[in-house]
C-alpha cells in the first residue's frame, strides 16, 4: 500500500486506525484549514471594528459617553467586554487560535509550495502542454534539436525567464521560470502576521505607559498608573528602579513675544537626571521629536501645563540710596548673591499678577501682568518678600516700594510652561516596536510581494513529427496576473517563431 493510500484511509476512517488517532487527525485538519483561518480573521476584524465604533473605557471622555447608555445597555455591553475589546479574554483567545491556525496551515501546505522551488517540473508531455491555457504549436525545418533548444533558451532568458535545458528519451525540453519565490509569499505573510500578533500580545501583557507631571526641581521614583473599571478610574502607584529629577524645562517659541500654546511652539524639551543604584547617574533631554530610552523605559513629550512661567529672568535693580542701576540674571528655582552680600532667591512666577484677599495670585495663565516673587535676604538680616513687575509701577504703589535697599523691575524673561507632562512607556522586550514596525511594515511589504509578483512558468518540448520537421510544443501557466502572462507568452511565441 502506498503512502498516499494509507494517508487517505486514515483520513476516511480506516478500521485499523484507533478512534482517538482519527479524532486527532480530524482536529488537526480542522484547525489547519484555510477556511477556519479566514473565519477567525473575519471575527477578529469585526471585533476590532466594534472597538473603533464603541468608545473604549481608557479613552478620554468615556465617562460622559457611558452615562448616555441605558442600564440594560451598560449591563450587556459591560458583560460582553465591549468597552474594553482589545483587552478582553476572547479577543486574545482568537489571536492565539488564529496564530495556531497559521502555524498548522503553513506546516501542512509548505512542503508542496517549496517543491515548486527546489524541484521544478522540467519536462512535460505534449498533451499536458497543449492542455494549458496558454499554449502554442510551431514547426521548424531544423536538423539540430539541441541547437534549437539553446536558441529557445536564449529567447526565454531575454524575456526574464531563467531557462533549464534537459534531454529525456531523445527529446529536448526547455523550462523557463521567473518569480519562483512568490510561491513562498503566503508563508512570508504568515510570518509577519505571527510577528504582529505575538508582538501585540507580549506588549499588551508586559508593557505599560503612564503620564508623569514634571516641574523643575521635582523628583520622583514612582509613576501613577490608572486601572479602568468602566467609568471609574482607579489610581495606583508603580515603583521605578531609579529616581528621576527634572532639572529644567524649555519651550522654543516661533514668536518669543507670543503665547506658549501649541500653535506658537517649535519644540518642548525636558532635562532630567536619572539616579540609578545599579548604573549611577544619567543626564538626558527629552524633546518633542527625540524620545529617550533607558532600561526598557521610553520617555516621550506628552503635553505641557501651559500656566505661564519663566525659565530665566533679567532683573533691573536700582539702589534706594542712589546709584547706578544694574542687571542680574536669575534662573528659575535658583538664587544669586549681589556684590554687597544680599541674596536673591526665586520663589514663584505669576503671569497675571493680582492681589486676592491680600495674597498674591494669578488671574489667568496668560502673560497679562507678569511678576516674579522673590525672597531677598540682606547681609545679616531676615528674609523679605519682594516683587519685580514687568510693568512700570508708580513709586506710590505698595508692591513697587523698595525692598532690602533696592527697587525691583522685571526687565525681561524667557517664557516657559509651569510644567511638562512626560509619557513613560515600559516595554522590556521592545514588543511594540517589533509588532508595529517589523510586523506591520513587513506585512505590507509581503502583501505587495504576493500581489504584484507572479510565478511564471513556460515549457518547450522539441521533437520530430511525422513529416520529419522539428515540432515545438509550448505551454505555460502563472499563479496570478494572467493577462500580463498571456502578453508575455505571446511575445515569447512570436520571437521563437520569427527568430529561431
Tell me about this structure.
The chain has 500 residues and is of the alpha+beta class. Helix content is 34%, strand content 37%. The protein contains eleven helices and 20 strands. It has helices spanning 3-11, 19-31, 34-53, 62-67, 71-80, 89-118, 126-130, 145-158, 185-206, 431-452, 482-499, and strands at residues 134-140, 162-168, 171-178, 208-214, 219-229, 232-253, 265-276, 280-287, 292-294, 297-319, 326-331, 335-337, 343-350, 353-356, 359-362, 371-377, 384-389, 406-426, 456-464, 470-478. The strands form five sheets. A five-stranded antiparallel sheet has the order 1-20-19-3-2. Strands 4, 9, 10, 11 and 18 form a five-stranded antiparallel sheet that branches. It has a four-stranded antiparallel sheet with strand order 5-6-7-8, with no helix packed on it. Residues 1-13 have low confidence and may be disordered.
Amino acid at each position: 500500500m502506498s503512502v498516499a493510500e494509507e494517508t487517505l484511509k486514515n483520513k476516511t476512517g480506516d478500521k485499523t486506525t484507533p478512534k482517538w488517532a482519527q479524532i486527532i487527525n480530524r482536529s488537526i485538519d480542522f484547525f489547519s484549514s484555510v477556511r477556519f483561518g479566514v473565519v477567525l480573521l473575519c471575527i477578529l476584524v469585526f471585533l476590532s471594528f466594534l472597538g473603533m465604533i464603541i468608545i473604549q473605557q481608557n479613552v478620554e471622555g468615556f465617562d460622559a459617553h457611558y452615562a448616555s447608555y441605558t442600564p440594560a445597555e451598560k449591563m450587556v455591553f459591560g458583560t460582553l467586554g465591549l468597552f474594553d475589546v482589545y483587552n478582553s479574554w476572547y479577543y486574545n483567545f482568537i489571536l492565539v487560535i488564529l496564530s495556531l491556525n497559521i502555524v498548522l496551515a503553513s506546516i501542512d501546505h509548505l512542503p508542496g509550495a517549496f517543491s515548486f522551488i527546489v524541484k521544478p517540473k522540467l519536462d512535460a508531455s505534449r498533451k499536458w502542454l497543449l492542455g494549458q491555457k496558454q499554449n502554442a504549436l510551431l514547426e521548424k525545418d531544423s536538423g539540430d534539436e539541441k541547437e534549437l533548444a539553446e536558441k529557445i533558451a536564449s529567447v526565454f532568458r531575454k524575456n526574464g525567464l531563467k531557462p533549464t535545458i534537459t534531454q529525456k528519451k531523445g527529446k529536448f525540453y526547455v523550462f523557463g521560470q521567473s518569480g519562483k519565490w512568490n510561491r513562498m509569499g503566503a508563508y512570508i505573510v504568515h510570518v509577519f502576521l505571527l510577528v504582529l500578533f505575538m508582538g501585540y500580545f507580549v506588549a499588551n501583557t508586559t508593557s505599560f505607559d503612564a503620564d508623569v507631571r514634571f516641574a523643575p526641581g521635582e523628583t520622583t521614583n514612582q509613576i501613577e498608573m490608572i486601572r479602568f473599571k468602566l467609568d471609574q478610574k482607579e489610581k495606583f502607584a508603580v515603583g521605578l528602579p531609579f529616581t528621576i529629577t527634572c532639572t529644567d524645562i524649555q519651550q522654543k517659541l516661533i514668536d518669543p513675544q507670543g503665547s506658549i500654546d501649541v500653535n506658537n511652539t517649535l519644540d518642548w524639551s525636558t532635562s532630567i537626571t536619572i539616579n540609578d543604584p545599579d548604573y549611577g547617574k544619567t543626564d538626558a533631554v527629552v524633546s518633542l521629536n527625540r524620545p529617550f530610552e533607558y532600561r526598557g523605559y521610553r520617555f516621550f513629550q506628552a503635553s505641557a501645563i501651559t500656566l505661564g512661567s519663566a525659565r530665566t529672568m533679567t532683573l533691573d535693580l536700582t539702589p534706594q540710596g542712589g546709584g547706578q542701576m544694574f542687571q542680574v540674571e536669575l534662573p528659575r528655582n535658583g538664587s544669586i548673591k549681589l556684590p554687597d552680600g544680599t541674596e536673591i532667591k526665586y520663589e514663584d512666577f505669576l503671569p497675571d499678577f493680582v492681589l486676592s484677599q491680600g495674597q498674591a495670585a494669578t488671574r489667568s495663565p496668560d502673560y497679562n501682568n507678569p511678576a516674579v516673587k522673590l525672597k531677598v535676604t540682606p547681609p545679616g538680616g531676615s528674609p523679605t518678600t519682594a516683587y519685580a513687575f514687568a510693568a512700570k509701577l508708580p513709586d506710590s504703589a505698595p508692591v513697587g516700594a523698595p525692598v532690602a535697599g533696592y527697587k525691583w523691575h522685571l526687565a525681561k524673561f524667557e517664557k516657559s510652561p509651569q510644567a511638562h507632562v512626560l509619557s513613560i512607556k515600559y516595554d522590556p522586550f521592545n514588543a511594540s516596536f517589533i509588532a508595529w514596525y517589523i510586523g506591520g511594515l513587513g506585512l505590507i511589504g509581503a502583501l505587495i510581494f504576493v500581489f504584484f509578483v507572479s510565478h511564471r512558468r513556460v515549457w518547450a518540448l522539441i521533437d520530430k513529427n511525422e513529416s520529419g520537421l522539428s515540432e515545438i510544443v509550448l505551454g505555460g501557466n502563472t499563479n496570478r496576473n494572467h493577462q500580463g502572462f498571456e502578453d508575455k507568452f505571446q511575445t515569447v511565441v512570436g520571437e521563437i517563431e520569427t527568430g529561431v
